[in-house]
Amino acid sequence: MTSCGWTLAEVKTTPNTQVASDTLYIYTWTGYTDSDLLDRFTEETGLKVVADVFDSNESMLARIQTGGAGAYSVIYPSDYMVQKMADLGLLMELDHSLLLGLEDMFPMFKNPVYDPGNRYSIPISWGTTGLIYNSRKLKQPPEDWDYLWQNQRQISKQFTLLNDVREVFGATLRTLGYSYNSTDPQQISQAYEKLIKLQPAIASFTTDAWRPQMIVGDLLIAMCYSADAAEVMPENEDLRYITPRSGSSLWTDTLVIPKSAPNPDGAYQWMNFMLQPEIAAQVVERLSFATPSEVAFRKLPKTLRDDPTLFPPESVIERSESLAPLSAEANEIFDRYWTRLTSA
């Protein structure tokens, strides 16, 4: 294994990409960093890290496209957003000779459909999308997405959906028997009509704000990412997480370097730091998101390796779909319906 026993300071980019800076700015999801992680990186590299957070891929992209492109050296887009950003010319093509640890990944992450050959991105975490619920307050636990429609009156204003157009429409498409990745205008329209019927009962569209509300019992159900569920459930023994029976998304969050990165050398150092199996395993234990590194996975305690919320069984993976990149035309359709839905 080649990713052990090296120091981050040894990794250097070519001279024309070096930027004199003692600070690395990253743009990431809530809950993906903590002071221990940032301090450890600073100790190993001498670089200070400033982490800004976003709550949806779309809000991240909007910020990058409206003046934020030159602010960050590392960004954490999800799978489908990688190709969208690459198609927009926003991403730097990675020099794999500067990366240590890509060979440690599980096979499913080495040549992903959203970024063949990991040309622009490296995977940092993965999981499913499902429902977290309060098992004490719900007489009947949810088993599938259609639970929200079937029990709309009983749970009205006590559940949230993700602030993510692809996830919300994908889940609804699955209730109709279609693919998470459908681009059929008629099928997307049917999903929108179904969501409009549910809309009056939805408390909010949020990726993160549900957490404290679920912990104290103000919400009954929240659509969420498995990594977030794994982090929150220890705070309330009544909370449970399920991946819906009809199928879910199998998401991957990644690290990319924008073309306008002010410190690409530091960005490669951050990537190599996060690729270290020791660091990746510690992050799983502390921050509760699943590592795509097979070597790091082996370093985890058995209780974590066997945790179905973090590392879903093969039966769940088989009925889940990775979010595939969409054409510009399909994106326009989804965005139009999403604007109507969230502003209704």
TrEMBL record:
<dbReference type="Pfam" id="PF13416">
    <property type="entry name" value="SBP_bac_8"/>
</dbReference>
<dbReference type="InterPro" id="IPR006059">
    <property type="entry name" value="SBP"/>
</dbReference>
<protein>
    <submittedName>
        <fullName>Spermidine/putrescine ABC transporter substrate-binding protein</fullName>
    </submittedName>
</protein>
<keyword id="KW-0574">Periplasm</keyword>
<keyword id="KW-0813">Transport</keyword>
<keyword id="KW-0732">Signal</keyword>
<dbReference type="InterPro" id="IPR001188">
    <property type="entry name" value="Sperm_putr-bd"/>
</dbReference>
